[in-house]
Amino acid sequence: MVLVAGVDSSTQSVKVVVRDAHTGELVRQGRSPHPDTTEVNPEIWVSALSAAMSGILDGVTAISIAGQQHGMVVLDEHDQVIRPALLWNDTRSAQDALDLVDEEGGPEFWANAVGSVPVASFTVSKIRWLARNEPHNAARVAKLMLPHDYLTWCLAGQPDEFYTDRGDASGTGYWSPALGSYQSELVQRALGHVPQLPKVLGPSVAAYETSNGVMLGAGTGDNMAAALGLNVQPGDVVVSLGTSGTAFAGSRIPSADPTGIVAGFADATGNFLPLVCTLNAARILDSTAAMLRVSLERLGELALSAKSGAEGLVLIPYFDGERTPNLPDSSGSLHGITRTNFVDANIARAAVEGMLLGMAEAVEALEQQGVVAQRILIIGGAAANRAVAQVAATIFAQPVFIPTPDEYVALGAAKQAAWCVSQEAAPPTWHTSGQTLAAPVSTQFNAALLDRYQNYRGALYDLSR
C-alpha cells in the first residue's frame, strides 16, 4: 500500500489525513487546535502541525498542505518571522484595499490584471497595511509567503527557494490566473519594494523531497483543495459553511468581475475556480445558540419547528463585518420584529435562513459570471446540522445535496500528494464519499425569502456607503 498525507491548516485547527494513494481509503488521522484570532505567530502553526502529524506518518511517501487563503507571512533576510501573520479575517486592511483600487485605475483594472478586486482579506491589502502602519517592518520584508507556503517550506527545512501553487497564488491580489504570472508592480505599489516571492508550480509538481525521501507537494488554498476533494464537475456549485462561507464552481476559463463580488481564482488542477466568500457562516449559528442558551442540535430543532420565513424575521448576518458585500465595518441586524414573531423558534429559523441567504446571493453572483448551477453541494461544519440541510432546500432554486461528512480540504490535499507520486495526466478520483438529497420532495423552494433579504441588505448597504 502506497500512503500519502493531506493537511488542512485552517483558521481554527490543523487536520492531517493519511490515505491509500490508489483507493483513497482513510488509514490514519490527526488533529490539533489553532488559536481563535485574526493574527498569529506562524510558529504556532508549525507546532500544531507537528502535534497533528505525531505518530501517523509511518510509510507516507508524499505530503501536501492546503491552507487558509490570503494570509500574510513576512520574513527578514535571515529567514526570521518579522511579525505575527495577518489572517484572511483581519479587516484592518479594509481602507488599504480601497486605496489600492483607487490608486491603480479602479475595479476594472484589478479585475483584468489579477482576476479579482482587492478587499481587506487579500494579501496585497495586508502588505499595504504593513507599509502604512509598520513601515520599519515593511522595509525588512525579504520573503513574502502565504500560510501553506510557510508550512511546506518549514517541513522542507527552510531552503533558499520556496514554492506555492496557482490556486493559493491567485488569492494574493498580485498573481494573475489568466496570465499565469506575478504582477510585481502591484507588490511594489503596495509594499514599497518587491521581496522574494514563491515560485508557482503546476498542480502535480513536487516542491521538495525531504532528507528521508518524502515528496512535498506544492500545496494549495483550502477552497481549491475542497473542490479537488469533492471531484467538482461543471454544473456543481459548492457552498462551504465553515468559519467563513464560500460558494465556488469549477471552470475552464478565467473570470474577471469588476464588481469585486466574484473572485477569479485558479483551482488545483490547472483550471479556474470563480468564488464568492463571506466572513460569516457557522459562527452565526454558534452565536445564536449561545444567545438562546441551547445546543446547536436544539437550535436546529427550534428552526425546523418554525415556518419558512420565520414569520417575517430577517437576520442580516454581518456579525464580524462583511467581505461580500464589502462592508468591513458593518454589524449584524435583525429586522421585521413584532410582538408575536419574536420567539425562540423564529429567531433560530432566521439565523439559519440568514446564513444561507447570504450564500444564495453568492450563487446568484456566480451565475451572473456565466456559471451554470445545476446542483448545490453543501459542506463544512454547519452542514452537519439537520436544519441547515432542510432549510437550504427552501433557499436555493437548484437541488441541494449533502455529501457524506469528510475532511474535504485535507482529502483534496492528499489527492494532490497522490498526484505528485503517480504523475498521471489527471488527479485520482477516489470515490470515497456519497451524497444525499438534502430534504424531502415536500420541502418547497421559497423565492420570496431572497427578495425580502435583499431588500433589508440593500438598505443596510446604502446606509454604510
UniProtKB/TrEMBL annotation:
SUPFAM superfamilies xrefs: Actin-like ATPase domain
Keywords of this entry: ATP-binding, Carbohydrate metabolism, Kinase, Nucleotide-binding, Transferase, Xylose metabolism
Entry protein name: Unannotated protein
Claim: Nucleotidyltransferase is one of the keywords in the record: no
Gene3D superfamilies assigned: 3.30.420.40
Carbohydrate kinase FGGY N-terminal domain residues: 4-226
Domain Carbohydrate kinase FGGY C-terminal: from-to ranges: 238-419
GO biological process: D-xylose metabolic process; xylulose metabolic process
One annotated GO molecular function: D-xylulokinase activity
Transmembrane residue ranges: none
